[in-house]
Fold each of these.
Amino acid sequence: MDPMEQIKATFFQECQELLADLEAGLMALETGDNDPEIVNAVFRAVHSIKGGAGAFGLEELVSFAHVFETALDEMRAGRLAMSTPAVKLMLRASDMLSDHVSAAQGQTPADEQRSSALMAELAALTQDGSASAAAEPPPAFIAVPSAASPGLDSDEPVPDEIGFVPLRVNLDPPPASGWRICFTPASDLYAKANDVTPLVRELERLGPCAVHLNAEGLPDLDVMDPEAAYLNWTIDLSADCSRDAVQAAFEFVDGDCDLTIEALVPVSQAPPAMDLESVLAQARMPSPPPSDGEIQAIIDQVVPSVQVHMDQTKAGASSVSSDHPQGDAAPDAARSGQPSGPQATIRVDLDRVDRLIDLVGELVINQAMLAQRVAESGFARSSTVMVGLDDLEQLTREIQDSVMAIRAQPVKSVFQRIPRLVREIALSTGKRVRLVTEGEGTEVDKTVIERLSDPITHMIRNAVDHGLETPAERVAAGKPEEGVIRLAALHRSGRIVIEVSDDGKGINRPRVRQIAIDKGLIDPDAQLTDDEIDNLLFLPGFSTASTISNISGRGVGMDVVKRSLQALGGRIAIASTPGQGSTFTMSLPLTLAVLDGMVVTVGDQTLVAPLTSIIETLQPKPSDVRLLGPQSRVLAVRDTYAPLIDVGAVLGWREQAANPAEGVCILVENEAGGRAALLVDTIQGQRQVVIKSLEANFQDVPGIAAATILGDGRVALIIDVDAVIALRGKSPASPTFALAS
């Protein structure tokens, strides 16, 4: 790919992140969060998109972003109120900006008529909001070059007839209090479409500024690099503000400039100013050498002022050092091994990461094969070969963990789309909804994240449309008018769990059952438990909506959610209490590449049970096994009973159930928290295996989640624990051995 195209692709990737931040910030403003930093973050997002678009000549995107940015600038300046209509307009502008970005990528063209209308609304909003500020005096902005470059026009003073150069003296009195900012931009600042003028305007919001330009480093035009930075500025800010407030004005260019901030000396503590004519006269006229008394008088006059200035400078420097290590603090940070700034990151093509993960998978398989060959050769455990093999196994695991961490990303990228979705559905249904999110930093494999968006979207739509009552219904039920939707992510037993809950009316089970009967999905005489009735929601074509709308009612959604999760090796469970609400729990593997499993034998087959589902293994006694009905058996485990499931019989590999006393039981826990005992013939050991999709390479097999390759080259099937438990009642095998009474 052409280098420019690579840079452009990176820009569009950053645009997606910036658009997400923009929408999240606007949603926070709409909820009443008036934190100025949120407004600044929203402004920076639009400003960054505009700057990058300008570098690539995307004029339509630049034009719209400029108008949008102007309105946001008025808002953060306080000249435009953060009212609800204004924020709603900016949310629509955010959607339009996203359309312009998509159009710039060569996707669907943006609606020019809608774009022009929004630009007119933003311009009108800006004019109305800034009308009251038109009479305010312009901010003080003075640019005074301290030196002119050779070869350029200059108004520099020239020596008079006797060789004296007139002094350039600022006749304005120094500020009563404030800060002196020395600002030297790096070339990266201009490369990122930034400019010095907006930075100075930020300072002018704090108070009057006297800006002095230093052009001493400006070379001749014939040797000038157009992308280099030659100028620097000294800015005297007359404002009674904190150092942090000054630092915040340069936050957007942090790392792209050299910045020092020093406190100015108040007038009352500064040495007395001398008249200009007196200075010139003293400079022109020779004077006799001062006496010792005169020298001491000068010292007594100057030292107190210098000492005050040094004390203030030292205090300011220590304040800067505590927040931003620089100077002597930087070597100390380097010696201590602590990072002195934000960690550096790089963008890597996802295909390269996938290729690396595939290679790590092959490494795991080859390491297992090597271990198998060495074990068959009869080497002693203490031999150097076995010790080296153990080291290789440990190293392989560390490499695998590190590579998987590269793909791990927080679920925030999915969660941050939900507030806007909830807002739109609440407006269309006339309901009041508050969204609560938890665990946005929970990390999971990128592949899982990409495929989580649709299931979560379906669940949220159903929670708002079906789960929550209208405000009138909630008040009648003794609830607040505002309903609560909770979206949470957490790690549990090596898996990621996503919970979508609401405090609505819960599932109307009699109605669900009747709808299933009317649609012919169940027999009218069927006896179903509450959980089985709840699971009717996942049947294809099932819908409780009485009318078809743009939100729901067409009988698709919940079955799509279930199939999507099953394709990821996940499960979904429902817990509902009438009148109190419902909770939908989705459980998925953290990664789709490698898992730790226990290798077992069932008949002539080798299987792998996921280690995250296993609680313990045990050798059952005949007295621990009890019959339950004509075919089912349970196993007594420490004052409780667990269903005993013969894996070989459930999967159809033998007609007669095996004798538990001759096998091994694996006590497992399913996603709903229930326990069961899986009966296998033998346990070979624990291994790390690489997951290979069975559906992609063969077909879907009930009770089997995926496949893997063992160290001896054989293919082993990975057990789907939940599916095996669900199949236990469908096994035709029956026990043929004696059980304890």
Amino acid sequence: MGKGFGQPKALPTRNATQFMRAFGKCYAKAEGDEWQVEQFLQANLAKLDEYLLEALPHVFPKLLEDGHLGDRQNVAWLFGDFGNAVWKFPLGDRALNLELSIAAYQVALRVFTREVLPEDWAKSQNNLGIAYCNRIRGDRAETLERAIAAYKLSLEVYTRDAFPEDWARSQNNLGIAYRDRIRGDRAENLERAIEACELSLKIRTRDSFPDNWATTQNNLGIAYWDRIRGDRAENLERAITAYELSLEVYTRDAFPEKWAGTQNNLGNAYRDRIRGSRAENLEQAIVTYKLSLQVYTVDTFPEQWAMLQNNLGNAYRDRILGEQNDNLKTAINFHKAAAQVFTQDAFPFKWAESQSCLAETLIKQASATDNSDDLDTAITLLKEALEVAVPGSPDFIDSQYLLGNALSRRFELNQKANDLQDALKAYKTALDVISPEHYDREKIWQALPTTQSVLGSRLVREGQWQEGLQLLLNSVRLLSEGDDQLAHANALYQTGRAHETLSDWDNARLYYRDALRLYEHLNDQPGIAQSRHGLGSVLASQGYFKKGMAELQQARDLYHQLDRQNRVREVDNLYQAAQRAEQQMSEVPA
């Protein structure tokens, strides 16, 4: 029995047979006119449903029985044509359309064997790979493995000598799949993506195949943008060059959609660019994104429009020119606009990415305003995104890293021990699944010891001094090997505080002095103030009252300039205590 009120299983199969027969007549009459085929699908939109998906594999023998569509080969071609048409169809449920195309190609491959019809078999394998690459349902990692397998099968027939154009197309598609691949080593996957694109360009030259050449240049640019191996700055320059080459063919008048897509990619590269002025690169990114929006409007290309809203949000979040508060508000508005299209049901992965983008912007805003409400929202968004993200994927790693940042920042504001523990867990989760050469490894290695230093200091103050001090010493060692000098200075300061808590004055003084030197090198005024504060307290505790009061006075002045009145009062109390102790010492008889 089927769904509903007890309808027999044959009913959806019979309807599906009638639908496919009608599609075959329309396709034959259209004679290659894709617009007519799209109009047919639009008129029959309600029939592109789960029943059709379930029935499609059973329709083939019924179409053979009535004989109207010809022999097995002709019916197989019909399924291949339907797969192509529904894959391109812009209306209806995108996820379902892709499932229908996959089912149709799989039916066609029952007839198109490598031995009997090798060219049709290779073509169907290539098309199946494209559908798998774009698939929304199912496990994303497994789907991409199926896409790669399908492309590789097509290349067993599509050799460079026998089918150079088809070979180049499959190489280009294989490059896209390797670029997006989740399993395996990410750095190696990207090298394979670059290699496949460069192989494709041996046939897809600008003179012979300008449109395809521009497509592969664009794909090559994306792979270099993502590339892990090699010099990051040079990879981004290669990406920019590839996009600009692509735009020599993809002009707005001739290829408006592809022009807009490449402008978006160029904006991504400028947003990440290392060479040149950071401020100017971000302005250039914003300009190119906005150019893309001239074509990608919310009505005509809602998915691409939403993607650009997120990209503009990221660019405004990082923007240097203009007022930071205005830039952050603009960024938040762009991310919220993207969320109107990227819903969890329709675009689960892109919805999760949007959640992370908005969360990262809220974290930055919280750093500027000390508003814990923004952090609460960011943490909620990231946890929701992680429910969808594929474990081990770059999005999963980035969201875990951001969650660690948000929790660490919230601890700084509210001093809730659980936030620190959860931050450390988030960082460790990211590290456990990260590739040795993953682009974010350095950031996360620095974030982990940064959290360790704060957590270690707290554990010491709560009496768990052995575990806490070990975390602190690990953080100092790890951060001394990185390039985040501010994080290293913070770790030195926290270690000084821990030693002060343990009344280990000598080590406390040494770590405070090391932190002070580094803060002064960085011209970090809050860091200088807190290091002088700690150093003054330790010196006074050791009986060096004049030196201690001198450090405390400088700390007080800095806190006053920074408008940290609670810290001013704290230093005043220490200063007065040291002053009284000095007076008492001077009154002791010789």
